[in-house]
Amino acid sequence: MAYSTSTRDFVALSDLHPNLARPSVIGVVIGKTDVRSFPDRKNIGSERYTFSFTIRDSPTYFINVNSWGREEYIRSLSESFRVGDCVTIENPLVQSKEVEREEKFNPVTPSCYKLLLSENHSVVKTSSCYEMDTKLLSLLHLPVKDPQDYYSLGDIVANGQSLDGRILNVLAAVMSVGEPKYFVTSDKRKGQRCEVKLYDETEMSFPIVCWDNESIQLAQSWIPRETVIFASDVRINFDKFRNCMTATVISKTIITTNPETAEANALFSFIKDSVQSGALLDKMEEQSKEPINLETVVDVYTVEQLKEKALQSDGKLDPIYGIIYGYISTLDIDDNASKIIRNRCSICRFLVNEVSNTCTFCSDISPGSKSTFASFDILVDVTDHTGTLYSCYLSDCVAEETLGCTVHEFLMLTEDKKTALKWQLLLERSKIYFKVTLSPSWRSGLKVNVLSCKPADPVEASQSLLGKGTGNKRLYHMA
């Protein structure tokens, strides 16, 4: 198949071969890397610059394109188009690719060739997609892998660390897109990072991280709770800090936005039903179920410091994990049990609909008592010598550990024993691990989840509050 315009005929990517004289090709850009530099072996002390991209001109054929040259040329060329643009390439060098070497860091393509661009001989032009054949535009919504060849987010979580380091395909919806974060490395190189939260029918919050500018820009175009992506060849890792599985966009990755496949359409239907029922928004407001490795949480805060940090955040605050040496100052567990005990889904562990007592997220779950379990859902106040954090979440397993009893055991207690348990915990100096996020709808503007609350070692607490504890960075002296 060949495309043509009023001035030139284009060779189909599938018809390319090294002996073809001065070929011209056209295609949509489906993947692109950032500009990188390497020491120039021929000119010691100078650097060569490069970037690569992948173009497609048919449902079954796409090819990688590499460009090397001076910094000015490479940066100018890279900035002239983005993923989703149509480009024409005149006079590229068609070269056989070393499959094992090429596909280790580049997208896997059906072509046995790659294209090389020369500053002196090749020309790349960006064409308006509106002037191109609509068949080219439709290619942007076709995954480059078998649309059935992917892992659900639930499968990844269930397999856990056995998938650490694996390269997989993922089909998921976009829950939220984080703000890009910029930094400078120790060797003075600029970097960036953006985290996107994904979800599907099996898992409601799964992070995928973008480290390159191209994928970050693409992610910024996604609409939360409306966009579905098919991400081919992402790297799966176990995050030791958060104690959860994550995905990372790498140089091999090609992301198809809003793919036109039966599997994606089923996910679109799930999104629509969840949003219309209001269940998805309720889900987002629930306490995060991502487990945290408490051994990695070392920063000690006071209540005053947390509030100051929130005030200085200008409404944009990443979750804060830390420790407070304080005590629970409000704990209403001897009033009405229905206020502190609610039912959760036995599969996803999130709160269920109070009227129907069933989970609205697990599509394969059937109504009945076996589908839910009773769980603590307590609001407590946490106080130290600098102030109080009001309405902190103490729930589920953390609440059971803090109270020293299960929900069933708690319900068997007499009112007197519930009151005795309350006063046993109130005002006891504790080591409280927490997670804080901004929440305008919350009483204090801060949503605080208690991750652990246990009696504090007096020596450890004193040393930490005096600035002598290991790993403590932000401390005030005890009043």
Automatic annotation (TrEMBL):
Transmembrane segments: none annotated. The lineage of its organism: Eukaryota, Metazoa, Chordata, Craniata, Vertebrata. GO terms for cellular component: chromosome; cytoplasm; nucleus. Residues 8-145 form the MEIOB-like N-terminal domain. It is found in: Chromosome; Cytoplasm; Nucleus. The keyword DNA-binding applies. The gene is MEIOB. Component of a multiprotein complex with RPA2 and SPATA22. Interacts with SPATA22. Interacts with the complex BRME1:HSF2BP:BRCA2. Belongs to the MEIOB family. Keywords: Chromosome, Cytoplasm, DNA-binding, Exonuclease, Hydrolase, Meiosis, Nuclease, Nucleus. This is Meiosis-specific with OB domain-containing protein. GO terms for molecular function: single-stranded DNA 3'-5' DNA exonuclease activity; single-stranded DNA binding. One of its GO terms (biological process) is resolution of meiotic recombination intermediates. Single-stranded DNA-binding protein required for homologous recombination in meiosis I. Required for double strand breaks (DSBs) repair and crossover formation and promotion of faithful and complete synapsis. Not required for the initial loading of recombinases but required to maintain a proper number of RAD51 and DMC1 foci after the zygotene stage. May act by ensuring the stabilization of recombinases, which is required for successful homology search and meiotic recombination. Displays Single-stranded DNA 3'-5' exonuclease activity in vitro. It comes from Patagioenas fasciata monilis. SUPFAM superfamilies: Nucleic acid-binding proteins (SSF50249). Gene3D superfamilies: Nucleic acid-binding proteins.
